[in-house]
Write a structure and sequence with these properties.
By secondary structure, the chain is an alpha+beta fold. The protein is 58% helix and 16% strand.
């Protein structure tokens, strides 16, 4: 083992030395060409860089449809035009004698143009890791820029870069430094996107840019175009393009997954991770060979080790749930025989007896004769989804049972006012089904036959909707007419949902309201006489006082005491006394109007508030009261006579007083009259 390792290390060392030797030998040979002819040396270096530049373009352009690498495509197009300018630079170099009438200034201007294009392209290229790239637009853009640069050079618009006998101009030297700065910034930009490259590729590109910077710096020193610094600059350019070749062209061709298909590898990893998260596996079945290929996720779904290998269809019976096997088997056989895709759900039983639900989607591949040769598809573990669906189904059933048996009516209305659902209690309450009232408009017509009442009800309903917040309940009580014509008092509670829908509950409170009305009547009415009791009289009288004050109307208050009540009770009994009170109530009802307020204030005390009266009305009512009493007393077989002590107080709207003052005044007058009557009876 140790000897083998030593042998391998020795081989690796020899290989490294061999590679270094070849590089040194190549550079030495290149140097020898410069001794023979510097023009030959220059041409070899430039042609090498031009070939590399064109090679990068060909690689990027011809793989753009299958490789999603905008960085490579951008550099490929850029280097095509950089190589184009370098090609013209090579032809224009001193000694080539191709462009007549031009001196060494021409190739120097072309050099600066090419290097600006190269540095700016390297600076901008990383941006297209994030942005989309239209290759045709970019190609046209570079073609236009290159045309402008070449035209400016050949038309003597471009600034001078070299002057014969003097050497480099200040413009050329300064711009070499500017280009070096741009290249340095491009290194920083590239490092921000280091995750887009494999380490080796990134190192090649970074060193390529570094040697380009060294090349630019070397070109700031020479005086003659054949000087040593010029040669060193071309050496650095040679190395720079060789490193670009290693990074992009050689790596891209020899090891495409290292660079060109890196995005595809990343996408594949993301897809695999997504499949794992979604619990989706894929499979292929070759019908001719009978071979199967499953992804790791298929084995996970079945709960078996991938080392056990893919299972033939007959063995899969051990895993598919017995109740689902026939459907599973028949579906696959039909797909093979009839060549049709399928989708099905079935259960599998893992070795640990855990049952999982699986959704399988299958498709077929056919040969030229239409025969199925391959079956492929996906399988997804949908157990959690099935459990959620079952839980939701159970909740839905429970909710439906609750709603169907609810003791109140329930309506679901969509945002357009259409009734989506009504429960049985709704029909029981109103006699209408959802077929009878398909929308709220139709409901209002049936529930409120009177147009005025309907208009008011709709207005109130819409006002409630406008003011209600989402999920806020808005109660409203309406008296509606049911299908059988009966009126019912219904408490509607509407809840506005975020979707614009409404849930409306309907409680029949007719009986409750009737009871409340009876209780209210009992609390305000004297049980014996049927008149208002003191509480009822005072409450209604105070309301009328406010109305009279507002409308400037007069009123007359009669405070009445039934005379000889004690004597009637003592001599004839309490039953006769009760009858006397009932007769008093009857007399007052005969004398006063229905709109007037009559009440029994105490034991034998009564009060009557005549509304909308004047001073003259007081005398008329008093006369009518006396006549009615006399009529009662003249009846045959009476055991007692009825007589009243009366105090009358008039309410003048010009001098308004409160009810207590009015009653106190009438009470005083009544007692004065009663006292006067007693004195007369004594005499």
């Amino acid at each position: 083992m140790g000897l083998n390792l030593l042998f391998l290390n020795q081989n690796h060392t020899i290989k490294i030395f061999f590679i270094i030797f070849m590089y040194v030998f190549l550079l030495f040979c290149l140097y020898l060409t410069s001794l023979k002819s510097y023009l030959l040396f220059h041409t070899i270096v430039e042609v090498f860089s031009i070939v590399i530049a064109c090679g990068i373009f060909l690689l990027a352009w011809n793989t753009k449809s299958i490789i999603n690498n905008n960085y490579l495509l951008f550099l490929g197009i850029a280097y095509l035009f950089i190589g184009g300018i370098d090609f013209v630079h090579t032809l224009a170099y001193k000694g080539m004698n191709i462009f007549k009438g031009y001196d060494s200034n021409l190739p120097t201007q072309l050099w600066i143009s090419a290097r600006y294009m190269e540095s700016l392209s390297l600076l901008v290229a990383p941006i297209f890791f994030k942005k989309r790239l239209n290759p045709h637009v970019l190609f046209i853009t570079y073609f236009f820029v290159t045309s402008v640069l070449l035209s400016s050079v050949f038309l003597n618009i471009f600034p001078d870069c070299y002057i014969e006998g003097r050497g480099l101009t200040l413009f050329k030297i300064v711009n070499e430094y500017i280009i070096s700065i741009i290249l340095f910034i491009s290194i920083i930009m590239l490092l921000k996107f280091r995750n887009k490259f494999e380490n080796l590729v990134l190192k090649y590109i970074l060193w390529s840019i570094i040697f380009t910077i060294l090349s630019e710096l070397a070109f700031t020193f020479y005086i003659g175009v054949y000087d040593l610094s010029n040669m060193i600059g071309h050496y650095f350019k040679f190395i720079s393009f060789y490193l670009i070749y290693k990074a992009i062209f050689q790596t891209g061709v020899a090891r495409p997954y290292s660079f060109l298909l890196k995005d595809l590898k990343d996408n594949e990893a993301l897809l695999k991770e997504a499949h794992s998260i979604a619990k989706i596996g894929h499979w292929v079945f070759d019908i001719k060979t009978g071979t199967r290929k499953w992804s790791d996720e298929i084995f996970k779904i079945l709960g078996i080790n991938p080392l056990e290998g893919e299972l033939p269809l007959e063995k899969q019976k051990d895993f598919v749930h017995p109740q689902d096997w026939d459907k599973y088997y028949e579906t696959i056989q039909r797909a093979i025989k009839e060549g049709i895709p399928y989708e099905m759900e079935f259960r599998v039983i893992r070795p640990d007896k855990n049952i999982r639900w699986v959704n399988a989607i299958g498709n077929v591949t056919k040969d030229d004769k239409g025969n199925v040769i391959r079956l492929f598809g996906t399988a997804q573990d949908i157990t959690e989804r099935k459990e959620i669906e079952e839980a939701l189904s159970n909740e839905r059933k429970r909710f439906l049972n609750l709603v169907e048996s609810a003791p109140f009516g329930l309506i679901l209305v969509d945002k357009n006012g259409n009734l989506q659902y009504t429960n049985p209690k709704f029909k029981e309450l109103f006699g209408y089904s959802i077929k009878d009232v398909s929308n709220l408009k139709n409901w209002f017509i049936k529930a409120f036959p009177d147009p005025d009442e309907r208009e008011l009800a709709i207005k109130l309903w819409l006002d409630d909707l406008k003011s209600a917040l989402e999920s806020q309940s808005t109660p409203r009580i309406f008296t509606v007419k049911a299908k059988d014509g009966k009126e019912k008092i219904i408490n509607f509670i509407s809840i506005q949902l975020e979707t614009g829908e409404q849930i409306i509950t309907c409680y029949d409170i007719t009986e409750q309201k009737q009871i409340e009305k009876k209780l209210e009547t009992l609390s305000l009415t004297d049980e014996l006489t049927g008149l208002y009791n003191r509480r009822g009289f005072m409450m209604l009288a105070q309301k009328q006082m406010k109305i009279a004050e507002r409308n400037k109307k007069g009123m007359t208050l009669f405070f009445i005491d039934l005379d000889q009540m004690k004597e009637i009770n003592d001599s004839l009994g309490h039953q006769a006394g009760d009858m006397a009170l009932i007769e008093t109530a009857s007399i007052l009802k005969d004398v006063f109007r229905e709109s007037d307020i009559i009440g029994r204030i105490g034991g034998d005390e009564f009060a009557a508030l005549a509304l909308d009266t004047t001073e003259e009305t007081k005398d008329i009512l008093l006369k009518r009261l006396n006549n009615t009493i006399n009529a009662y007393n003249t009846k045959k077989d009476r055991k007692y006579n009825i007589s009243f002590s009366i105090g009358i107080s008039v309410y003048n709207p010009k001098f308004p007083v409160n009810l207590d003052t009015l009653m106190s005044s009438a009470d005083d007058l009544m007692y004065k009259e009663k006292k006067k009557r007693k004195e007369i009876n004594k005499n």
